[in-house]
């Protein structure tokens, strides 16, 4: 008889106990049942490459054949880090290099130090959520499952019914309670703004409706959004702060994301030339 048949599901299956998730990823906070699953997740989604010093005598001439390369010695640049397995050479832009600074833009005396981050709450504080369970319930229903409001209310009713014998209640009284709690989160707030636009050109006879209609555009301040991301310690070591170039052992260029491409490097050159800080030995 097939394993999934109704008979097999009835015989001896009622006593199964749900095994709760236990292990949390420190980067994205995803939960795993066992260490092997957590390890595989980290290696798949959070592994990062680091730089490798470019040997000055062997490779510098080839690297300098590309546009926008500065005439500064490679081995004097603190941004050239060593990759132990030697897979890639990692060259960070020598002027726009993401040197650490404080909130006022003043460079730190020790380039290896880090500015003080925003004050973090204790790990047991889930404000404005009453508990970790309430937070993870909201995160799952609203962020991951994206369940409809009607379905959330039905789920909460079933949840409440299952807890009646224990005199307990589900994490939220209703979907409205959940949404109000989410809206009260004080961290990383970037308020919405809106404005109205309409066509302002010459109107032809019998203009189409879109030419006379008024449209509302809603947006968030991108500078506020960027500031919130940069100040969030959850994103530490998860993004690059400067343009870079990567090469394999045969000096073949490797592209991984926006900051590894030519456009980002050229923008850095233009910006530092405007500021009078960049020295280039070839036109671009």
- Shape label: extended
Give the neighbour order of strands across the main sheet.
Answer: 3-6-7
Proportion in β-strands: 5-15%
Helical residue percent band: 25-40%
SSE blueprint:
Blueprint: H1 6-10, E1 23-24, E2 31-32, H2 35-45, H3 56-64, E3 89-92, H4 132-144, H5 149-163, H6 175-183, E4 192-198, H7 209-212, E5 214-220, H8 222-230, E6 244-247, E7 253-254, H9 262-274
Q: Which descriptors apply to this entry?
A:
4 domains, alpha+beta, 9 helices, three-stranded antiparallel β-sheet, 31% helix, two-stranded antiparallel ribbon, 284 residues, extended
Give your account of this protein's structure.
The strands form 3 sheets. Strands 3-6-7 form a 3-stranded antiparallel beta sheet. The chain has a two-stranded antiparallel sheet with strand order 1-2. The longest helix is centred in the middle third of the chain and has 15 residues, at 149-163. Residues 49-65, 67-85 and 279-284 have low confidence and may be disordered. It has helices spanning 6-10, 35-45, 56-64, 132-144, 149-163, 175-183, 209-212, 222-230, 262-274; strands spanning 23-24, 31-32, 89-92, 192-198, 214-220, 244-247, 253-254. By secondary structure, it is of the alpha+beta class. The chain folds into 4 domains: 18-47; 56-108 and 233-274, no CATH class; 128-185; 193-222, no CATH class. It is built from 9 helices and 7 strands, in the order H-E-E-H-H-E-H-H-H-E-H-E-H-E-E-H. It is 31% helix and 10% strand. Strand 1 and strand 2 (31-32) form a beta hairpin. GO terms for molecular function: zinc ion binding. Keywords: Metal-binding, Zinc, Zinc-finger. Residues 23-47 form the C2H2-type domain. This is C2H2-type domain-containing protein. InterPro entries: Plavaka (IPR041078), Znf_C2H2_type (IPR013087).
